[in-house]
Design a protein that fits this description.
This protein is α+β, with helices and mostly antiparallel strands. Helix content is 50%, strand content 15%. The chain is built from 24 helices and 18 strands. Strand 8 (545-546) and strand 9 form a beta hairpin. Helix 4 packs antiparallel against helix 5 (129-140), helix 5 runs parallel beside helix 17 (369-394) and helix 9 (199-216) runs antiparallel to helix 10. The longest helix has 27 residues, at 221-247. 40% of the residues are buried.
């Protein structure tokens, strides 16, 4: 029996969709698909990869999900149903590879399956191949969706399960299929298990069932049994998760974070929209949604056209889920400020489902079918371009993104640890980790992390039963030393790759240990030293002398500046700069020490460190220490000169008593 024309058309359309998806994936992910969790929310994403690695190491004990961070008992933690991480671990076991590309491709593929079910839904019930392509491109190019689609968060697989649920849910109403309803609840339950906020949509389906019982006065026992099983599964795993949390601890957030008042909540909502509106959707998405909604209202309320329309019962479900996500938004509002993917867990889902519902419910009688393809092509090109620009920004290195700085600094740190004969079972403490698992995973060692530099957190972290201490070189001074200067008395450097340094604990306190001894700089055979006093053999500028000091006057932005040619034989083989500044002045903590690598008039590399805060800094001299790295070249070419200078941001009077520099 030959397949029908409609079936052949669907096969061709599906194949075209696959080709389109592959092309879009190549366009968006060709440079990042092999990356370890990086850039925006690398912390959360690396935690998920750590769970997958944990299954590889605990003989695939599904009910004891494990991290590299040992701050929970044995690294075991409560976490949403980790089926994604478990499957990824199985694939890694089969392939013999722990490459992050496996996790990224898994999420990407799962996401495509969800998009394909949306495609089928619109193709089948919207009666249009153009509409089907439009909805896939609409969702794919939502910037927040695009960014996380090839990532590690369970949000994306749960979202795909919602799309699959939605297909079978509508099919069950349109074709009165009980089997489809069963499948829809199964996928909805899986979405809720793997990501807790998706319980909203399961609860919305149950409320929809109750509403139907009330409206139509007919009891469906089969549906009721389905919901009993669904909620039973969710509640059972929740109770087990509570047990895990009480016995082992939790590395994940599990509490609500609302605003303090209704007035604050409304004001904060506006702030959040202004902050995230173009990272959630491009202007073309807002235009497309408004256009489809307007035309839907026009056809069904104004013209009252007899057009294709999905049953109103489905709309009830979407509206119930929309109310549920609004409630969730206000309960977790403070988290939305720093976690735009929370919108993918909540508000964006009913809005996407509404878009699909409205799109399926309209008909446009074009005199020329080509016009529809022209409009689709315009929307596709425009939304792809805008979303690509957002992705470019998200994957750009920023000085404020210390998670990404940490990732780069810990690349190949496992090799350094091996070269220092640090056992795989040794426990490592990372001070200034800016992530709870990322640096430990890159070192391929378990241990503990201290996220930020404060005296309290450092003292607490030093109580952990660790064997070796690790700090990123660029954060030793001023961050670590300013917060806890006594660190030099208790630890000795044992090795460094100029990005991170390993330390071991001293058996005895050494109160006279200097900063350069702490770093092991004095053990270097070749050191090059200079100071602003030596302005004859070194090129210094902005030296306004007063007695033995250098003055940065009121209103003066640029302080003493050392300019060194990169070919200068005194520094040509040097890659690190240790700086000791003794100074005092108003708003000293606003000043910055800056190192630039320049080619002609162009800055091709830029590093900065803010002077730490000390009490009475405007009256008393204080010692400030910095450690920076000279980069021999960048993607923009080889540098011709390096400049090291003080940036007097607030242009207040500063007196510099000492400015010593060591190149090594």
């Amino acid at each position: 029996m030959k397949p029908s024309i409609k079936d052949r058309l669907l096969v061709k359309a599906s194949f075209s969709l696959l080709i389109l998806w592959i092309c879009l994936c190549f366009l968006f992910y060709k440079t990042i698909i092999f990356l370890f969790p990086s850039h925006i929310h690398a912390w959360t994403q690396s935690d998920r990869l750590a769970i997958a690695y944990g299954f590889l190491e605990n003989n695939f004990n599904f009910f004891k999900p494990q991290l590299y961070n040992l701050e929970t008992l044995g690294g075991i933690t409560r976490v949403d149903f980790p089926i994604n991480e478990y499957v990824v671990a199985l694939i890694m076991k089969i392939t013999g590879s722990k490459s992050p590309v496996i996790f990224r491709i898994y999420t990407l593929t799962y996401s495509f399956i969800g998009l394909y079910f949306l495609f089928l839904l619109v193709y089948k019930y919207g009666k249009s191949i153009r509409k089907a392509f439009l909805v896939v491109i609409f969702v794919f190019t939502l910037p927040v969706f695009t960014y996380y689609q090839a990532g590690f968060l369970p949000t994306m697989t749960s979202l795909a399960n919602i799309f699959i649920f939605y297909y079978f849910y509508i099919k069950s109403y349109e074709e009165n299929e009980k089997q489809s309803y069963t499948l829809s609840i199964i996928f909805l339950t899986l979405a809720a298990l793997t990501r807790t906020p998706f319980v909203i949509f399961l609860f919305a389906a149950f409320l929809h069932y109750i509403l139907e019982e009330f409206l139509y006065k007919k009891r469906d026992v089969q549906k009721l049994v389905l919901f009993i099983l669904a909620f039973g599964s969710v509640i059972s795993y929740y109770l087990y998760n509570e047990y895990l949390g009480k016995k082992y601890g939790s590395a994940f957030l599990n509490s609500i974070m609302p605003s303090s008042s209704l007035k604050e909540a409304l004001s904060f909502s506006d702030f959040l929209f202004q902050k995230w509106k173009y990272e959630l959707a491009t202007k073309y998405h807002y235009l497309a949604f408004a256009s489809v909604l307007s035309y839907f209202i026009y056809q069904h309320l104004v013209r009252k056209s007899n057009t294709q329309k999905i049953k109103i019962d489905v709309l009830y479900y979407i509206l119930i889920s929309l109310i549920g996500t609004i409630i969730y938004f206000f309960l977790m509002q403070l988290q939305f400020e720093d976690h735009e993917y929370y919108f993918l867990d909540s508000l964006l889902i009913p809005l996407i489902l509404l878009f699909v519902y409205f799109l399926c419910g309209i008909t446009i009688d074009f005199k020329s079918k080509n016009l529809a393809w022209i409009l689709l092509t315009f929307f596709s090109a425009a939304s792809i371009n805008d979303s690509k620009e957002i992705q470019k920004y998200k994957y750009t290195d920023h000085l404020w993104n210390r998670q990404e700085i940490t990732r780069k600094n810990f690349i190949n740190s496992d090799r350094l640890a091996d070269s220092l004969h640090i056992n795989k079972d040794a426990k490592i403490l990372v001070l200034g980790s800016y992530s709870s698992n990322l640096p430990l995973m890159l070192m391929d060692r378990k241990g503990y992390t201290c996220i930020s530099f404060t005296e309290k957190t450092i003292k607490q972290a030093l109580q952990f039963p660790f064997d070796f201490l690790v700090v990123q070189n660029q954060f030793i001074f001023p961050d670590l030393f300013a917060a806890y200067p006594n660190i030099t008395q208790s630890f000795t450097a044992i090795g460094s790759n100029d990005k991170i340094t390993f330390f071991k604990r001293n058996k005895n306190i050494k109160p006279e240990t200097s900063c350069i001894d702490f770093l092991g700089i004095n053990s270097k055979k070749e050191l090059t030293k200079t100071t602003f006093y030596d302005s004859t053999s070194w090129k210094w500028s902005n030296l306004i002398r007063r007695d033995q000091d250098i003055i940065i006057n009121e209103g003066q932005e640029w302080g003493p500046t050392l300019n060194v040619n990169t070919k200068d034989p005194r520094i040509i083989s040097k890659r690190n700069v240790f700086v000791h500044v003794k100074a005092n002045g108003d708003y000293m903590h606003k000043a910055k020490l800056i190192l630039t690598s320049e080619k002609g008039d162009s800055i091709i590399d830029f590093q900065e460190s803010t002077f730490p805060i000390y009490a009475n800094a405007q009256k008393n001299q204080h010692d400030y220490y910095f450690l920076m790295k000279i980069k021999p070249g960048t993607s923009n070419g080889e540098a011709e000169s390096n400049k090291l200078f003080i940036h007097n941001v607030d242009k207040k009077l500063i007196t510099v008593n000492q400015f010593d520099i060591i190149f090594y």
